[in-house]
Amino acid sequence: MAVCADVGSTFTKVAAVDLDTGAMLATAAHRTTVESDVLHGLDAAIDQATASLPDRADISTVRVCSSAGGGLRLAVVGYEQLVTAEAGHRVGLSAGARVVHVAAGRLDTGALAGLRADRPDVVLLVGGTDGGDAEVLRHNAGRLAAARLRIPVVVAGNIDVRDEITERLAAKGTPVVPSENVLPRIGELNPQPARAAIRAVFLRHVIGGKGLSRGPRFASLVRGATPDIVLTAVELLADDLAGDLVVVDVGGATTDVYSVLSPDPDARTVPMREVAGTLWRSRTVEGDLGMRWSATGVVRAAAAERLLAPGEEETLFTAARVRADDPSFLPVTEIDQSAEVRIAQLAATIALRRHARRESRASANDLRRVRLLIGSGGVLRHAGLAAEVALRTVLGDHAGGWALPRAASIVVDLDYVLASAGLLAVDYPTAAAALLRRHLTAGQGSDRRL
Questions:
Q1: Distance, CA of 354 to chain centre
Q2: Dist CA 300 CA 15 (whole Å)
Q3: What φ, ψ does residue 374 adopt, rounded to 5°?
Q4: Is the pLDDT assigned to residue 275 strictly greater than 70?
């Protein structure tokens, strides 16, 4: 039996999973105890989840992902805004990071000050295609080394100067991890090596330094940042089902959208690749769309997108302000619950609009072939039938300027299996796939294909 836990900024969610069958044995949640030690809340949730299990002592592994303490804050330093910096930004998001700073071109004193002010946990240094111009990459590595920021750096630019740059940063005491180029050739995006390097830095240098726990035990349990782990599960599910899918995760501070797409085999022409490449397995994160801290941003964005009914903005903004001022707010009355679902519906709609518009720019492929839409996040899990109604509205967003899925099924991740499956995917892929299949693909057909 494995215990899988997602330590979030607000709640810690725990699931006990049978590693032989992939069955979910028990779940529990506890408030994340960031004010003292996150292990207090984690251990309480584990005790609650396993208390009634007859084989409680048969826990063979405990695995954790975390977005507590602000998650993984990433700065991208690239050569050109629309090419390598954009490629690095996309790769950073796919690695589960919150990209807090993007710089392009030669770093100067002002640019370094701006980077320092945004307090990244990791810097992703990119620039140049393999065998191409390396001067800007060399310059930026030199400025980072001289600045002695003591921020870990992942080097993922022109491979011809990777060793030189790695040695230069290391000589100044900068923790550095070399990787393959995120953009080895124009239009060819290579995300996986840099994504793995960012994950390694997060585990080695970041999670233990956030002050979430006083001892080494918590850091030893963490396998990655929560969004990175969730994307791993989304990729596994898409591969298992051999089809395109989208996940919309409505959280307290952000709304994340994950998609796994594939080139259209029926396309008559091969789409022209954009210079920054196409990321077929991607994540976007909307920092102004959330159920608590950024609830007012949802209403503002909805007004800008003309999604609100006449007279609705003022009432909904008041409800959003209550939630932003008190992130621990829980809806009790029918009016509160109605506002909760409406804010979630708007957040999901706007986030998917933005994601789809971006994907449509990236290539001729879009979300029309998506056959499964998964809703995630506490608000959707607790909304009952209203969650499906809200997601149906998202799929009926004909005014959004994006091509809607032609025939998508809807499911809500009621048991929060995405994080658990992602934590198990590498070492226990059969159990992870069975867990996803059982909870997220009911009704998809006996052959489990979309």
A1: 15
A2: 36
A3: -110, 125
A4: no
Rounded to 5 degrees, φ, ψ at 38 are -65, -20
The mean pLDDT of the chain is 89
Which residues lie across from 246 on neighbouring strands?
259, 373
DSSP string, 93-121: HHTT-EEEEEEESS--HHHHHHHHHT--S
Q: CA 420, CA 295: separation in Å to the nearest integer?
A: 27
Residue 362 clears pLDDT 80, i.e. is over it = no
CB 382 within 8 A of CB 11: no
pLDDT computed for residue 271 by the predictor: 43
244, 366 contact by CB (below 8 A): no
d(CA 397, CA 401): 9
Q: What is the pLDDT of residue 10?
A: 81
Asked if 447 and 437 touch (Cβ cutoff 8 Å), the reply is no
Tokens of 112: 């370094």
- Which tens digits make up the pLDDT trace of 185-203? 987 889 999 999 999 999 9
Gap between the Cα atoms of 75 and 125, Å rounded: 8
Instruction: Name the residue type at position 61.
Output: T
pTM: 0.86
Do the Cβ atoms of 338 and 332 come closer than 8 Å? no
Q: Give the DSSP per-residue string, 375-420.
A: EESHHHHTSTHHHHHHHHHHHT-TTSSSPPPSS-EEEE-TT-HHHH
- pLDDT the model gives residue 273: 46
Spatial separation of the C-alpha atoms in residues 83 and 79, rounded to whole Å: 8
Place of tokens 């999604």: 307
Q: How far apart are CA 7 and CA 4, in angstroms?
A: 10
